[in-house]
Amino acid sequence: MKISKDNKSKFKQLVETYQDIIAECNDSNLNDHILNEELDLWYTKYSNLTS
Question: What is the top-level taxon of the source organism (predicted)?
Fold first, then answer.
């Protein structure tokens, strides 16, 4: 599947936004384990898009 540069860019922006949300949640002492697993999933998806 070929993914356009525009879509990669949009997805990267979503990952960065999600990363900011995770940082705020961590500051609030929410469940880090679940949040980090979700963040790992996003990074995996992004890595697959850019490879």
Answer: Eukaryota
> Contact 10/49 with Cβ under 8 angstroms?
no
Q: What is the mean pLDDT of residues 27-48?
A: 68
CA distance 21 to 31: 13
DSSP helix/strand/coil, 30:
coil
Tens digits of residue pLDDT in 11-37: 888 888 887 877 776 665 565 666 667
Rounded Cα distance between 32 and 5, Å, is: 32
